[in-house]
């Protein structure tokens, strides 16, 4: 039997906001957000001080200002965040070449075999966190375990500036006590549905056989079945290339009004644009996904000649695609947008649209659910 892998997930603490507080001492200790500089902007990142007021990323700036009238709002400086991210990446590579960046502020590292010959992954994670702080003045949280799922969940437990180890002998018990909301693909709507089925923890989920999970949740059910049993053999892939960026919104009630659907789609477009900026991604193809109340699903796509970057352009294409969709009487339960077909204009694109990305209408969509990964 092979020895367990040693996987680290490093997640920078409130990265964009922390960089701004580092570079502007007068902002330290104050609630701060990075985002659009008008009341119609969108929050791209929030400091921990701002989060105490219930402010979160992708929230309408007007709503954030209502929650915290003294909120500091600063425009994003993507070139600075990118430069700091590269500094952090250099530290990772001192320990292993198996580094898989997920975005500017987080990455997986496989240190099963590492360049410094260190036996303890926890000590490596602690040393990396100390090096990051010494070099950048920023804090990071880390999770250490035997697979990517456990490492990622663990990194969120002692935030900010914490480290959590889930040792091989602790893995089964750790997953058993994990709230169902912590599992990949389980957003608010799915969590509510699981609660109605009596599934509130990993232990509850583990009692369900594969065929019943698939019957209830489709392909995602297979993912839940394997992940709750710590069957996550996904390698840390240093050559991982992002092929698309997208998100979708499952509604708590089925929608029937086309105007309301367009409002939801505009909110989704701003969230996709935010994620594209964070990942320095652009593409030429936009795909609209519509799932009806009877679970029938359709997609519509449009490919253009140049990069899709800003949410305004995205919504022009979305409206054209949506115009051809016939809404049945029972309504729509899910809408989603994805940008794919990456193009060479990527770097130029995100620089050009840094400010427009975060200006837009109120984002009133329900919590966005992430597919099983």
Helix content bin: 25-40%
- Indicate the low-confidence ranges by residue numbers: 344-373
CATH class of the largest domain: Alpha Beta
Beta-strand residue fraction: 15-25%
**Ends: how far apart?**
26 Å
CATH homologous superfamily (4th level) name of the largest domain: Reverse transcriptase/Diguanylate cyclase domain
Structure description:
With 373 residues, the chain is of the alpha+beta class. The protein has 14 helices and twelve strands. The strands form three sheets. It has a five-stranded mixed sheet. The chain has a four-stranded antiparallel sheet with strand order 9-12-10-11, with helices on one face. β5 (99-103) and β6 (106-110) form a beta hairpin. α4 (78-93) packs antiparallel against α5 (121-136), α10 (210-217) packs across α11 and α12 packs antiparallel against α13. The chain is globular and about 60 Å long.
How would the blueprint of this fold be written?
Layout: E1 7-12, H1 15-23, E2 32-35, E3 43-46, H2 48-51, H3 61-67, E4 72-74, H4 78-93, E5 99-103, E6 106-110, H5 121-136, E7 140-145, H6 148-155, E8 163-165, H7 171-177, H8 188-196, H9 202-206, H10 210-217, H11 219-227, E9 244-255, H12 258-279, E10 283-292, E11 297-308, H13 311-323, E12 332-342, H14 346-352
Parallel strand pairs: 2-4, 7-8
Antiparallel strand pairs: 1-6, 1-7, 2-3, 5-6, 9-12, 10-11, 10-12
Helix pairs in contact: 4-5, 10-11, 12-13
